[in-house]
User: Fold these one by one.
Assistant:
Number 1:
Amino acid sequence: MSSSSSSSSSSSSSSSPSSLAVLLVLVTVISVTSAGNLYQEFDITWGDGRGKILDNGVLLTLSLDRFSGSGFQSKHQYLFGKIDMQLKLVPGNSAGTVTAYYLRSQGPSWDEIDFEFLGNLTGNPYIVHTNVYAQGKGDREQQFYLWFDPTADFHTYSVLWNPQRIVFYVDEVPIREFKNLERLGVPFPKSQPMRLYSSLWNADDWATRGGLVKTDWSQAPFTASYRNFHTDACVWLLGRSTCNSRSPVAHSWLSPEMGFANRQKLSWVRRRFMIYNYCVDAKRFPQGQPRECTVS
Ligand SMILES: *[C@@H]1O[C@H](CO)[C@@H](O)[C@H](O)[C@H]1NC(C)=O
């Protein structure tokens, strides 16, 4: 519902020859802007003025009322990287609203890495819903509660995506890992560049307590806020992937293993905060667990 803008980003619409000099100049420009101005990183793509970039490009807000939600997308496409952004979710009675924040490629056999934040009545917990699609097939939901109130402050939500794994992070705590298990015949997103999208919309037919709690329109407009977009990623440029890392440890996000401390954190989250895992949903998968669930 959110991908309606032109298919070519500002950087890839250049038809100049891809000489090394041109590439280097473009890469430099992207490196400089990668931690910066939201005007340079995103286009508001729908919502008729309900999405706004404010404070000279420091803050972005999306809003939802009974007539429409709103959404934005990144100007760049990425093929692998670590992508971070801070979000402050709809406060108060946000039941029925969904804030989606995801990476997605184009076409009928698309890849997608999803965060969706399902709102709730005041004082009741949001659900963080996650999913991974490869070649158009998803059905890999995991859901979590958070260990803080995501409406009181900004928190960092990140996706790490490299050829070996996808890791979802909340404030640098890994909450989910999806490994590349192509050796078991499980498709893995690794060749289609993805754009970052976010949208705020009404989903009161399913979002809160399975659709039992409806959106209270007397509370509208609902607003979610975004800031501090940061990428350490390979940008898809002129038909190829160009890595723009400027971190001290170049491309540390490419490192294939998660490390002991992060494994401990991941298992803490799974133990304490995971409320749904498709891997153990025998009703949905009566003929046995999906392949990727059979290895730890
Ligand atoms: C909303 O709160 C209820 C009651 O605490 C809880 O069961 C539910 O998981 C919460 N989240 C959503 C999105 O329904």
Number 2:
Amino acid sequence: MTALFIPLVLILQCCFTATSSHPLDPLTPTEINKARLTIQKSHIGNLPNLTFHFVDTEEPEKAEVLKWLSSSNQKRSIHPRQAKVVARAGGQTHELIVDLATSSVTSDHVHTDHGNPPLTFTELFLASKLPLSHSKFINSISARGLNLSEVSCLPFSIGWYGEEITKRAVKIQCFYRGGSVNVFTRPIEGITMLVDLDLMKITVYTDRFRAPLPKAQGTDFQTPKENSNSAPYNKTKSGFLVSGHKVKWENWVFHVGFNARAGSVISTASVFDSRKKKYRSVLYKGHVSETFVPYMDPTSEWYFRTFMDIGEFGFGRSADSLQPLIDCPENAEYVDGFMAGADGKPQKVERAICIFERYSGDVAMRHTEINVPGKLVRV
Ligand SMILES: *[C@@H]1O[C@H](CO)[C@@H](O)[C@H](O)[C@H]1NC(C)=O
Ligand SMILES: *[C@@H]1O[C@H](CO)[C@@H](O)[C@H](O)[C@H]1NC(C)=O
Ligand SMILES: *[C@@H]1O[C@H](CO)[C@@H](O)[C@H](O)[C@H]1NC(C)=O
């Protein structure tokens, strides 16, 4: 116990003084605002339709971060904070670097190659509402004998099928709620709309066929009310320390970040090597890179459904506040997430991440082995 106690104290001194923020810290709301104001005042600020698609910390080089981590508190230089911003203005995509100390744009690259910036929530929302006032769609719905007030339309990314540089567009598919909140259960098949996102207009409308709607009964998935109360709970003590974005647990230290694209990001994770009496770096940076969901159905209404959930929609952008005792146990600590909206202003996801300790005895996998002759092995 005594032997363990000493490194613990050292760690507390090395990593938990409030003075030094970590170079990989996500942007604070103040920094997000500063990046927005700097860009609005810059050469692209007066171009039409300035929208912010991605705003994140422009990280220092890995070697610099590692040097910062390994130097003592007193010798640590304050890292110049920079933001990287992907913005659209005047119909072009700009990749910008903003120096937050001097409030200046230090780099601007116009992206002309394949690929488009992440979709903003604002444009997805606006696109999904277009059909409801589109006369051809209104006719298609009434021809099916459906009630327009019970229709929800959703924007789907369109995939990429060739060398042409495609316009920024989404396809819209609609669903019939008809008393169910399980929107995806009841697709209104046969109708597809293409929306040009820069024009924010339906440019192609197709109504090819009709198909019966699945029934609404029994499709509800909501948590019964009595289980979803937010009564105060007794938080039990966690066995780790969270200070800003730094986490210390047993012989581990790591940094937890958040951005609109990846959601949770774990970086600079080290474990204390008790033989060498020093920390050993285990992971520089880890997050989910992409989830690619190709539906593999060749019909016109389905072939384009090849979602890139992270690159197109964003895990952080799609994050919702975690509910204590439903999503995370009572010994959890919560970290809020911040990101920029399409207007560049900071948005907060309260309790975006939770950190908790759990015993390793819980079942995490099951394996049944049938390849040992004469035996059925169950683990
Ligand atoms: C700006 O947005 C409007 C409406 O979405 C669109 O009609 C116009 O073409 C856009 N201008 C540019 C330069 O992208
Ligand atoms: C259509 O749906 C709305 C909203 O659910 C409802 O108020 C309205 O009465 C419905 N209209 C018809 C004709 O059923
Ligand atoms: C919290 O602690 C109080 C006092 O010990 C107890 O009365 C209450 O039932 C506890 N609540 C929960 C949710 O465990």
